[in-house]
Amino acid sequence: MLKTKEGEEFLPIKSYSVGSLFSTAKQAYQKTIGGKSDREPDKQDALIAIIFSALSLEAFINALADLATDRLTEPHSEIETAFANLMEEVENTKGATLLKFMLARFIFSGKMYKKDENPFQDFKNLLALRNALVHMKPAEELGITLDGHFVRVKEPKALKALPKNILAKYEKNKGIKWTSMISTQASARWACNTAVETVHSILDVIPDSLFKKYADILYAEIFQTVE
Fold first, then answer.
1. Which of 195, 213, 207, 196 lies closest to 70, judged by CA?
2. What is the per-residue pLDDT across 117-156, written as a single tens digit (0 to 9) for each?
3. How many domains does the chain have?
4. What is the pTM of this model?
5. How many H helices and E strands in the chain?
6. How far apart are CA 122 and CA 68, in angstroms?
């Protein structure tokens, strides 16, 4: 136990970037608000919201694993220790963020995500979309007609599983890039709220403990839905 200059006792908390990452996503979402429709294309800040929502999830699960071994949350249960050890092994073997969440869900609740339901489906799609943006490759998604009109000839893989009500509305004879299709207020809102639901899918199943208490203090209020 440490003390402030005024003599108040406190336990030190490590600094994590989780909150700032998700705040960046939410701020980007706020910048997309406005226009004729929430599915108006080319709201470039939506791409920031998508990427940083995914990044906040990666940071969250890593920070949670560290919290499970921190002296702040002692004594640690066998479940918490097992969680921390498994996360370390997944990290050391360059395992996917998706795997970390699946293991965390099972360790804390004894149950797996239902793969055909949310939040798992949206979570998986968010990570896939983030990877498609960060590791972008050329794709033959558009063609051009003899009279100079662009037409969509192929649906990019990153878009196929996304909810259709978040993608941009556009004229059928107007081809737009897939990045423009996901650059909407609706997409940005979906990304932020997917991060919220995914985080709470873990927080809500952690057994009552000091670890659970501090995990809620640190992250439950940060990850709140946007309207």
1. 213
2. 999 999 999 999 999 899 877 665 666 666 666 666 566 7
3. 1
4. 0.88
5. 9, 4
6. 26
